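REQUEST ID: PR-0412
SUBMITTED BY: lab tech R.K.
PRIORITY: routine
TASK: structure prediction, single protein chain
INPUT:
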Amino acid sequence: MGGIFKATTAALCLALGGAPAFALAVAAPLVPAVGALSPAQRKVVARRIATLKSPAERRMAMGWSDAKKAAELICRPAALPALKRQVKDADKVFLGTDDPATLRLAGDRRLEGQGQVRAGTGWRDLTFVCDLDPATGKVAGFQATLKP
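STATUS: complete
OUTPUT:
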């Protein structure tokens, strides 16, 4: 998968905790949303987008595909605690890359894809399945398989 994922994921990761402005300048282009998320999931996404600090960050996130929205705003918060059970020093996770093919949203119940987890100074590639509850907009389960 190669290297640390680019600014699309990094910009939001940093934005939710105080993004440097330069991170947004190199973010991926906007991708129209498809409409696979349930109404409850859309509410979760809208609430989390509303917490982003700048209008530019909010516009960027609103333009993401539903798969990217699910990855960043619904699944990623559940991914790190799950990965800490597998990777002792895990402290950061990226789900997907700038390549939209690395995330697959199967309706409003499952997101599958590729990602990376950082432990110490090293990154490990992984594949993941994030099970979604369309009624609540929450994660029902997160499983990751670390690549050798």
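NOTES: Residues 1-34 have pLDDT under 50 and may be disordered.
REVIEWED BY: pending
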